[in-house]
Write a structure and sequence with these properties.
single chain, 287 residues, mainly alpha, ABC transporter involved in vitamin B12 uptake, BtuC, 14 helices, 82% helix, 0% strand, globular, disordered C terminus
């Protein structure tokens, strides 16, 4: 414990915790919609092609973080534009991801040195973020949450019943593209903690766990954020005292919490809810 208290006094630890809080809040809120909209595969594609963007940025001498943001944003626009219908989306994601990964391999092959910065993005580097990185994460996180707040009600309606929402005049296609861009920002942030290879941990597991704890959308968002915070902060603190990678603890904690939500706590909490909320009615009120 004394060792942990001592480590908390270091700026790099404080930056890691600050960045972790921002990333967990954004990931937790976005995760709930990712699960509800069945977009786990899209999250994986955004992360993989974010890595491609990072590799391309390093090749031309630009910050890999800028490349990461560019890669996820371009991928989101491609998927949102081409995958108009849900039944088309997985095929589009697969096509775009395959092409993007091929480009990533090309960029790494052309780079004359060992791409340490790009490789680090595969596994996450939360303990290496600087104060300027934290500020950038805060700005991206704030813009992401503000955008999500603006589209929250119609997005909820389009998520629950897209056919009815479209019939009521809700711009379902436009909302799909906007949410993909929100996901792109969330992925770019979450990669800093768990890396590209483990991105599903923060963008899927909190929302999937929260779904097992309550049927109420608002309460599910709160639970999802709480779970993400527990995983990220717990992972950072455990990594500090054991010298094991943060991503190992984040993924382990998230898996344990999911199992607990699914088999232990979840059935009890859902049983206490007197009735499931009428999500369709809530969606109708959204517009």
């Amino acid at each position: 414990m004394d060792q942990l208290v001592h480590l908390l006094g270091y700026p790099f630890v404080q930056n890691a915790i600050a960045a972790g809080v921002v990333i967990a809040i954004v990931s937790g809120i976005v995760s709930r919609f990712v699960v509800a909209r069945n977009m786990a595969f899209a999250v994986h594609a955004l992360a993989e092609l974010g890595f491609t963007g990072s590799a391309g940025a390093i090749l031309v001498g630009v910050s890999p973080v800028i490349g990461l943001m560019a890669g996820t944003t371009i991928t989101a626009l491609f998927i949102g534009t081409l995958g108009v219908r849900v039944r088309e989306r997985d095929a589009v994601v697969g096509v775009v991801m395959a092409f993007g990964l091929g480009l990533g391999v090309l960029f790494l092959t052309l780079y004359p040195h060992y791409a340490t910065e790009a490789i680090a993005i595969l596994f996450g580097t939360i303990t290496g973020v600087s104060t300027s990185d934290v500020i950038l994460l805060l700005v991206i996180g704030a813009l992401t949450l503000v955008t999500l707040a603006v589209v929250y009600r119609p997005l909820t309606f389009a998520t629950v019943d897209p056919e009815v929402a479209e019939a009521r005049g809700v711009p379902v296609r436009g909302l799909a593209i906007v949410f993909l861009l929100i996901m792109a920002a969330a992925v770019a942030e979450a990669v800093q903690v768990v890396g590209v290879l483990l991105i599903l941990t923060l963008l899927i597991t909190p929302g999937a766990s929260a779904e097992r704890l309550t049927a109420r959308p608002g309460r599910a968002a709160v639970y999802s954020v709480a779970i993400a915070l527990t995983c990220v902060l717990g992972g950072i603190l455990l990594a500090l005292v054991t010298n094991v990678a943060v991503s190992v603890y984040v993924t382990s904690l998230s898996f344990a919490l999911y199992l607990g939500a699914r088999f232990l706590v979840g059935p009890t909490l859902l049983g206490r809810e007197q009735r499931r909320p009428d999500l369709g009615a809530e969606g109708a009120r959204a517009v």
